[in-house]
Amino acid sequence: MPDALFCHCRAGFEPELAAELAERAAALGHAGFPRTVRGSGFVEFIGEDAAQLARRLPFASLIFARQKLLRLAELRGVDSRDRIGPIHAALDAGIVRDRDGAPFGELWVEHPDSDAARPLSGLARSFGNALRPALRKAGWLSAREQPRLPRLHVVLLAGDHLVLGRSHPGDSAPWPQGIPRLRMHPQAPSRSALKLEEALLTLLDDDQRGELLRDGLTGADLGAAPGGWTWVMLRHGVRMTAIDNGPLRAASFEDGLFESGRLEHLRADGFRWQPAQPLDWMVCDMVEQPRRVAERMATWLREGWCRQTIFNLKLPMKKRWDETRLCLELFESQVGKPVQIRARQLYHDREEITVFARPR
């Protein structure tokens, strides 16, 4: 029977995710407690009726979780000569089969993204290749991948320690471990471009990407240099104004982007500049105190200078969940009108979270 939530996270941020899960569960009236080890790359939330909590706590609302699973079983002391048998037994004991077909559409064998668990990547691949046909033969896994059905996750914590979990495609990350595999474009001005690319994949849904990333829209990048976020938005068709007293990396903006009228670089202070007319987008990845950034971003939405924004909040070394909650509450209150907010610590983030916001 499902007995816990199992969430992947960035190694070192387990206390932040544990605090977030505990606070959100308590607000929903669910008793329980988080369990984790610093550096493990995951947090488990143990409590009554974990399945109901999973339904009431949508993945999209979580900030420090990369992936959310409903834990079905924990298997310890598994014999390396037969890992498949205990998985069959655990599924038989805890899952009610649907007569209409296999209960799972995909199998993901993965491991936490931590120093201790990364050596398990080879075992995860080889074991997945062996387990997949065995589960299909036993009727647990559909003969072909069915992305609309729940996924079965086997998380390797050690060679003899496995966690079985279930995720629903509409309430989880669409990548193993919750990590999108993005490749650095050779022309990108900086690695920060990957942060914005991931944010657009993670914080916007398919319809929003089609609506909000297209030719003819306008945007500004505050604190743009050397130009990574500006470059990403240009590649999505948005006409950009890059605001920074420092230079852009010129080699990344070849092919006539400066001359085409789609890119303008203004040497100005990103915290003081404001547009002459409303823009569709404002993006910001400035290294500044998170509360100061939250207040300035709220001003942009409150004054109608942009229709939506993506920005980063650089977190302190301590009390990062408290600072996150405070900054988001401050931002929402200062916008002064109903606002949609999605925030996540991305794989390409470090000591920060990324926020997408727009008025409702």
Automatic annotation (TrEMBL):
Predominant subcellular localization, coarse grouping: cytoplasm
One Gene Ontology biological process: methylation
Domain RlmM ferredoxin-like, residue spans: 4-69
Keyword terms, alphabetized: Cytoplasm, Methyltransferase, rRNA processing, S-adenosyl-L-methionine, Transferase
Coiled coil region boundaries: none
Molecular function in Gene Ontology: methyltransferase activity
Domain Ribosomal RNA large subunit methyltransferase M THUMP-like: 82-167
Reactions mediated catalytically: cytidine(2498) in 23S rRNA + S-adenosyl-L-methionine = 2'-O-methylcytidine(2498) in 23S rRNA + S-adenosyl-L-homocysteine + H(+)
Name of the top EC class for this enzyme: transferase
Protein name per Swiss-Prot or TrEMBL: Ribosomal RNA large subunit methyltransferase M
Species per Swiss-Prot/TrEMBL record: Marilutibacter chinensis
